Amino acid sequence: MDILTSLFREAGLQRRRLDLRQLSERTALHFPCAKSLGLHVVTQGQVFVHAPTLQAPLELNAGDIAVMGRGCEHVLATRAKWKKGEVETVACTWADPVAADAAPPASGPAVISGAYQLWNEPVHPFFAELPAWYVVRAERRASLGPLALTLALLDDEVRRRDLGAETVVHGLLDVVFAFLLRAIVAERGAAGTGWSQAVHDPPVRRAVVAMHDDCARAWTLEELAQHAGLSRTSLAERFRAAMDDTPLAYLRTVRMQRAMRLLADTEHPLERIAAEVGYQDAFSFSKVFKRTAGVSPREFRRRDAAERESPWRLRAG
């Protein structure tokens, strides 16, 4: 499994397609996305994103894409400014998707949106590196290669609603999302330090992949260096330069991210989860987990179970 797919899996990513929606001068779309990543593809017209993480409304025109890298409640509207009472806000909830046979808008601003929920706050550094908002303008899409073609297919499938359209649209939206995150990682990697820069260093990437593939293994720095094709000192230095961390500290983060998924998605006892993420006993595992996540494994599991019936929480599909 590649690293990005592994990260999504261990972080418990759940997908929700919000379909093609039309805006008018008197309506705005409200997205309750505090625990999500997401994207908006503007298929026609002009819309503005209003969010507390933005100093000013974000203007999007036909062909533009906005990626929400840090979850927040936000609103899409046709106006950069409005007065209270002038615009009706329509909540886009998980339980209220657009009907499959709804007619596509003939004119006016329209967007295709998708939400990718991360209910429990991830501890992996990749998620902390994501920008609050990332915009790809229409004129730049060609430089991202297959993205423009995929978006054209997505727009066509949403509008035609032919046989199998739901399956195709889900798949295409996932492809668009992956291409966009790939672009973000590439840009951040080229810009300097961090996880994104580290995984673009081939030897360091080999060590990272090894830890993701088998985090339960009792890795030593020597073994990781052998996988990377470097000396112990070189691997440690390159890791430190990129991520300001050591390889074994990164391994601990990978283990804790996987433990969070196992606590949320299984009923395995702590002893078994500890073993699955490389710890010899539940006590030592619990100490590290609490230091990383801020709560004990039992409290984390209790809170997660209590929140499972939240109307905003997506279910595994």
Protein traits:
alpha+beta, 12 helices, five-stranded antiparallel beta sheet, Arc Repressor Mutant, subunit A, 317 residues
In brief:
The protein has helices at residues 3-10, 125-129, 146-160, 165-191, 195-198, 202-213, 221-228, 232-243, 247-265, 270-276, 282-293, 297-306, and strands at residues 14-22, 27-31, 36-44, 46-50, 58-61, 65-68, 74-77, 88-91, 110-117, 133-136. The protein is of the alpha+beta class and 317 residues long.
Textual characterization of the structure:
- By secondary structure, this protein is α+β, with helices and mostly antiparallel strands.
- It has two domains: 12-191, Jelly Rolls (Sandwich), CATH 2.60.120; 201-306, Arc Repressor Mutant, subunit A (Orthogonal Bundle), CATH 1.10.10.60.
- 44% of the residues lie in helices and 18% in strands.
- It is built from twelve helices and ten strands.
- It has helices at residues 3-10, 125-129, 146-160, 165-191, 195-198, 202-213, 221-228, 232-243, 247-265, 270-276, 282-293, 297-306; strands at 14-22, 27-31, 36-44, 46-50, 58-61, 65-68, 74-77, 88-91, 110-117, 133-136.
- The strands form two sheets. The protein has a five-stranded antiparallel β-sheet, covered by helices on one side. It has a five-stranded mixed β-sheet with strand order 5-4-7-2-8, with no helix packed on it.
- A hairpin with a 7-residue loop joins strand 4 and strand 5.
- The longest helix has 27 residues, at 165-191.
- The protein is globular, with a radius of gyration of 21 Å.
